[in-house]
Amino acid sequence: MSLDIRISQAIKDAVSDAGQSPALARRLIAWMEAVTSGNEDPADQATASRHIEVLYAEASASGIDMEEL
Q: Where are the domains of the chain?
C-alpha cells in the first residue's frame, strides 16, 4: 500500500504553513511511505529513534516562542 497523495500534500502544506523547509516534508513523507509499504516496522524503537533524530535535526525552531509551548 502506498501513501495517499492527499496525506503527502497535507504534510507538505503543514510543513510550509509552519515555516519549515521542504526537506522536512520530504523526510516525513519518505518515512510514512516506508511504513505504509511495509518496509519499516513502526514499532521498531531503534528505527523510530533514528528517524526522529533526523527530523529534529531538520526542523527549525526559529520564530517559535518557546514560552508558549
A: 5-59
Q: What region does 22 belong to: left with phi over 0, alpha with psi -120 to 50, or beta? A: alpha
Q: Tell me the pLDDT tens digit for each residue of 33-68.
A: 999 999 999 899 999 999 999 988 888 765 455 455
15-54 burial code (b ≥16 CB/10 A, e <16): beeeebeeebbebbbebbbbbeeeebeeeeeeeeeebeee
Backbone conformation region of residue 40, classed left if phi is above 0, alpha if psi is from -120 to 50, else beta: beta
